[in-house]
Amino acid sequence: MSNNEQQKRAAAEAAYEYVVEGEYLGVGTGSTVNHFIDVLAERRPAIKGCVSSSEATTARLKRAGFDVETLNFAGDLSVYVDGADEVSPQLALIKGGGGAMTREKIIAQVSDTFVCMVDTSKQVDVLGAFPLPIEVIEMGRSAVARALVKMGGLPELREDFRSDNGHPIIDVYNLDLTDPKAVEARINAIPGVVTVGLFAQRPADVLIVAGADGVTTKKR
Ligand SMILES: O=C(CO)[C@H](O)[C@H](O)COP(=O)(O)O
Hints:
Elements: H1 3-16, E1 24-27, H2 31-43, E2 49-52, H3 55-63, H4 71-74, E3 77-83, E4 86-87, E5 93-94, H5 101-109, E6 111-119, E7 132-136, H6 141-150, E8 154-157, E9 169-173, H7 180-188, E10 193-196, E11 198-199, E12 206-211, E13 214-219
Parallel strand pairs: 1-2, 1-3, 3-6, 6-12
Antiparallel strand pairs: 4-5, 5-11, 7-9, 7-10, 8-9, 12-13
Helix pairs in contact: 1-2
The structure holds ribulose-5-phosphate.
């Protein structure tokens, strides 16, 4: 395993401490979450089942023998575990590198504790070096892109990609994200936007950071 994969695995092991037995567990998407699912598969907690944020995660959880239930059935959750592409000191996030941020945001919103796992490379003082993913309705994608240009952004359509919801994703460079809550509200108000991958209004509650010197945990 590479150093980076070892760090992801270490973060996943630390996140496991937040799993609550007897309940449904929210599970995010991405390579760090894949390590978390591997940890779940090895330790087999007595959870009721999982609520998944993507088809890829659902398939991996089912292969590991876990029940996957719809959020509509499971209701509000105690714990949601996921990764992120960037994290600020206030635990605001950029998510959606894997294109799953719509379902991720819905699950985060109804979870008491959002546990986010990252490696040190994803910690930034100000969000925005990572291009901001925005899921859009196909017929509105050019209109949304023009609105983003007016905000100072440089939008790029993600080539040959559709989200699990069947929508295109625009990755936006160059936005000023010094006030991420305000930018999130502004982008949410553009007609045609399904979900912006800014998690500032609902940031992480617990941040697990894995680095060369081990794992640290920060709480909001
Ligand atoms: O937001 C996400 C998917 O939509 C992921 O959490 C994010 O892209 C991080 O992925 P990885 O753990 O592979 O670096």
